[in-house]
Amino acid sequence: MSLYQFPLAQTPNWKVVMATLPSDEPVPNFGMGLTAYIIGDHLPRHKNGETVRETIEKIVQIPMASKLYIRPTWRQMQSKRGQLDLFEHWQVTLELAEKYNKPVGFRIMLANPDIAEESLPDFVLENVPMKFLGKGWDAEEVSDPREIRTQREHFLPHYHHPYFLEALEEFDALLAEKYNGHASIEYMDTYMHGFWGEGHAWPYELVSPFPDQQTGVETWVKIFEMQRRHWTKTPLVTNLQPDISQVGNDELVYRTLETGEWLRSDTIFIEPQQIELAGKRPPHVAFVSEVGMSDGTPESLQIENGLPHTENIIAHVRDLGANYWSLWNWHNIHAEHVMNYYRQYPAGIDALNHVIGYRLRPAWVWTCGDEAELTLIIGLVNDGISGVPGAVRLTLLDAAGNLIAESDLDAGQPMPHQVQLVSLELPTGMGWRGLRLKAALMVKGVSHPIRWACRESLNPDGSLTLV
User: Fold this and answer.
1) What φ, ψ does residue 446 adopt, rounded to 5°?
2) Residue-wise over 342-380: b if at least 16 C-beta within 10 A, else e?
3) Would 76 disulfide with which of 10, 72, 102, 276, CB 3.0-4.6 Å?
4) Burial category of 180 from C-beta neighbours within 10 Å (exposed 0-12, middle 13-18, buried 19 and up)
5) Average pLDDT of the residues in 448-460
């Protein structure tokens, strides 16, 4: 029971029986963490004759990372209708995620301008018209002429075509059948318009595959709602890209917030709209921050005021109260590149890892009442930088694991720098010593165990024995 209705002025015989200290260690709970990238836009680089498994395992073993992220194309996941054909990088990543207990977030790209291979399966390309956008990369920033994007012709499918919508829904249903609520899947990005699935076709944002703006908006709303029907247990994450291509991004963000799904951004400095939306999001909505970091080479450090540019990025990720941040070297993915930077400048990454997301602990434990009719009052605090991306369920168990009492908090609570009081009534005649206080995060009806972020010794399941 929340203590908003609790008669605080009348709590009899109250007494503080336990008080915990904050942990100074990372806490690998659901809905938060530093994220190592297996695939961003390119496959990871293989070094010294490494196999795919060896390269991926080195990324998975990055010690600061508690989560993984992989961004394959639709083509890499399906070659024939009616079945999945999961490519090697995906299969290895999921196997290693389970081995190392590092869950995976992912996106399926419908267009990737940075690879020569088409992003769509052949059966889609053969049945759906493609809109020609242009050749090369005519943007304000000068791209390396050796990059694929500067050499190739760029197309987008007619997303509104009946065959495209039918095939995508079938594919998404197959994925959800296998991975919706899967223990090794943390979240899935929503499908979005354009390059990388980010919600834009920059620098070709004025060329559209849709006959008019309304068709674009209706199409992407239809795809979003289809995805929500399939992914009933796994959070969906929508990119905060401003709607420069006029295809309904604003509506997708609105529906994401309305339904309690999560948000992400691939920038920390570019568009103020993204920053404001991320910073003012409801406390129960997680925020995924993706920003590339230096690989530790002198040319990538970009020293500013005596520190690398990556340290500036980290400071602003904290400003936004992020739940996740990417350990990602953009088109140069390899574990050694992340570690090359970290060995030189560990302080910023370590400091972020100790505050990112939510970090809950029962800071105070009071008893009130007499020995025959005891109530515990728990003062929960959040030492992290974000709200709780879901609703906390607090349970009190006896030494054998039997349920004694439980209480559900409001979604998003407790907020950082606030105290949330929760009462748990004990059965008549029961004492409090030796009981176990446990917490879980409820997201889309799924319970995810929470490990308390306190210095005191915890049980293997993350619960705290009251002593």
Assistant:
1) -105, 135
2) beebeebbeebbbbbbbbbbbbbbbbbeeeeebbbbbbb
3) 72
4) middle
5) 97
Question: Which pairs from 9-15 meet CB under 8 Å and 24+ separation?
Answer: 11/366, 11/368, 11/377, 12/368, 12/369, 12/370, 13/367, 13/368, 13/369, 13/370, 14/366, 14/367, 14/368, 14/377, 15/366, 15/367, 15/368
Instruction: Give me the residues paired with residue 361 across strands.
Output: 381
What superfamily does domain 33-353 belong to in CATH? Glycosidases (3.20.20.80)
What confidence tier does 8 reach under pLDDT thresholds 50, 70, 90? low
Q: In the CATH scheme, what architecture does the domain 8-25+358-465 have? A: Sandwich (2.60)
Residues 6+ apart with CB under 8 A from 280: none
Q: How confident is the model at residue 63 (pLDDT cuts 50, 70, 90)?
A: very high
Tokens representing residue 349 in the block? 């990454």
Residue 407 exposure: Cα atoms within 13 Å on the Cβ side: 20
Q: How confident is the model at residue 371 (pLDDT cuts 50, 70, 90)?
A: confident
Residue 444, token pair as written in the block: 């889309």
Residue 157 burial by Cβ neighbours in a 10 Å radius (0-12, 13-18, 19+): buried
Q: Are 390 and 31 in contact (CB under 8 A)?
A: yes
Domain ranges of the chain: 8-25+358-465, 33-353
Label the pairing between strands 104-106 and 67-70.
parallel
Q: Would you say residue 144 has pLDDT above 80?
A: no
Task: Report the mean per-residue pLDDT for the chain.
Answer: 95
Q: Which tokens is 147 given?
A: 């990059």
Please give the structure tokens belonging to residue 286. Answer: 């997680």
**DSSP 8-state symbol, 195:** G
Per CATH, 8-25+358-465 and 33-353 having the same topology is answered no
3-state secondary structure of 73: strand
Give the per-residue pLDDT at 387.
Answer: 97
What pTM value is reported for the model? 0.95
Report phi then psi at 261, rounded to 5: -75, -175
CA distance 258 to 261: 8
Residue 350 corresponds to which amino acid? D
Length in residues, the chain? 467
